[in-house]
Amino acid sequence: MQIQRYRLNRASGHIYRVMESPFRLEDVGESLDMIILHATPPVRGEPFPNMPEQDWIGLCFLNAELNWSFTLLNSGKSNALSSFLHYTTEREISSVLTKVTLIPQTSRRGNHWFGYAFEALPLPDVNLPQLLKRHSTLPLIDPTVDLEFSPANWDELLLRLNSQAITTQKMNSLSYDTEDLETRSKFVIWN
After folding, report:
1. pTM
2. Which of 120, 130, 135, 187 would you label with 159, given CA atoms 20 to 30 Å apart?
3. DSSP secondary structure string, 141-190?
């Protein structure tokens, strides 16, 4: 397993994997599949000197190759984070494979940019609690980002994922229609 970082460029509509040595950006397209492990609440800040202060959400996720990965979602001058916050109220984000896509948008004045669209897909056959236990030393918040993210609580995350796996297994064995159940994503609480 490798640690990887991604940039979702809302100006160009492309997603890039950040290659560390030598530093370069590898274009991975307009969408990215991920299993989101942790999402921070929106934090106001300026982690990059060439971008104005705005709201940011840090994501820790497993990419398609199950590499530990990080990215940031930004609000820009719009309300771009609302699509993610709405997405998280409709489901438990770690129980689905999330496809994030950058979609073109245009203002009334003719300005162009890209917004976020999120789609929930069936989770691949992965035992998340066991995978997380094996990599419990890895951070849930990108340590290279200069924002005031508090450290995430591992014990609560593992407890939540274990509970969710047991509940999902029981619901599947009892043939409940899980689409009728209301599930709300909860951010990991820290001290």
Report:
1. 0.79
2. 120
3. S-TTS-S-PPPP-HHHHHHHHHHHHHHHHHHHHHT--GGGS-----PPP-
